[in-house]
């Protein structure tokens, strides 16, 4: 998914990262509705499954996307192991998090993505919350806990993009 409008003249590139079920896709959809440029790297060939490494960003495409961004806020979402290679190019790295029970409820009930529906995938999510989320937290410049209304999460991301402290 990529939407190319922008409601801000302030140039900012924001990474929105987090575990499955924390609301990355939902908040990007809300930001797009508000007119921001958004890219969800789970779709449209931004990432590829590399044997032995799992899902990785296609670095050539991400590099070009970041280099060509000239005006307004760009929100990019994803959670892949090579995203750390791009951290210096982001104005902010925002970890979306939620209590584990909320994450599991969300993935069980969501209609947009089948990941998390099986018991094996739920166990995988539990494992990733314990092992991957702390790594994401250590690299994040902001954390937003998403057990609040989606509108509020999107507004907090807008504030970050506009250089307003939370």
Structure explained in plain terms:
The chain has 166 residues and is α/β, with parallel strands linked by helices. 37% of the residues lie in helices and 22% in strands. It contains six helices and eight strands. It has helices at 24-33, 59-68, 100-109, 119-131, 133-139, 150-161, and strands at 2-3, 12-18, 37-40, 47-50, 54-57, 73-77, 92-97, 142-145. The strands form two sheets. Strands 1-3-6-2-7-8 form a six-stranded mixed sheet, with helices on both faces. A hairpin with a 3-residue loop joins strand 4 and strand 5 (54-57). Helix 1 packs across helix 6 (150-161). The longest helix is centred in the last third of the chain and has 13 residues, at 119-131. It is globular and about 45 Å long.
């Amino acid at each position: 998914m990529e939407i190319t409008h922008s409601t801000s003249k302030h140039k900012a590139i924001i990474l929105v990262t987090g575990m499955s079920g924390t609301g990355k896709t939902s908040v990007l959809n809300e930001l797009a509705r508000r007119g921001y440029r958004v890219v969800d790297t789970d779709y449209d060939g931004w990432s590829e499954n590399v044997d032995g490494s799992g899902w990785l960003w296609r670095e050539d495409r991400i590099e070009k996307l970041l280099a060509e961004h000239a005006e307004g806020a760009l929100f990019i979402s994803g959670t892949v192991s090579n995203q750390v290679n791009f951290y210096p190019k982001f104005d902010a790295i925002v970890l979306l998090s939620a209590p584990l029970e909320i994450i599991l409820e969300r993935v069980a009930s969501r209609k947009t993505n089948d990941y998390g529906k099986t018991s094996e995938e739920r166990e995988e999510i539990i494992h990733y919350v314990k092992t991957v989320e702390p790594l994401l937290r250590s690299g994040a410049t902001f954390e937003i806990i998403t057990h609040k209304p989606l509108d509020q999460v999107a507004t907090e991301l807008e504030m970050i993009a506009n250089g307003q402290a939370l």
